[in-house]
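Justification of computing resources. Each target in the renewal requires a structure prediction run like the one illustrated here; the chain below, 171 residues long, is used simply to show the kind of job we budget for.
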Amino acid sequence: MRYRLAIVAPSAIDVIQHAGGWLFDRNTAGWEVTVLVADHTDVRPLRILGATVLDMEQSLAGSAHPTWPDAVAIASETYRSDSRVREGVLDCLDRGLIEVAVWGDGLPSELERRAAGHARHRVSVAARAFKACALSAAGRPVGAVEPMEVFRVGQRPPRVHGREADLVPTI
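Resulting structure tokens:
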């Protein structure tokens, strides 16, 4: 059984810019990475990073899935604009069983309190190269890809399903 990471965001470019390195590194570590995006017109750049891409509306409109991800990453914009995502994230944080990471500004107060920690992911050299390719495929200027991606994280157990979480708390 593989670990699962679910990422929910408005667009592929948002995922690539903020979590593309983490996505790639988790995928190459054997994780099943699924990305739900509202705008799924060009998902090829996400596939370059190793993600399975689903339409957010179709996925959220369907019935509950029998398997939960081990980690969830959410764009704050999607959290604010979609009540289904908001309820799911709060449920995940309340249950404390999975890793929850959020990127972006303007977190509502109920999430600000629950995702109070900051964490970073050190992006591997390979992930930086693939992230640059994905940005280029998306038609975005490719400068130097940052070696760190930063997230807000919810309180979670130090070990998630018997493994250490790979997001490192920041001071």
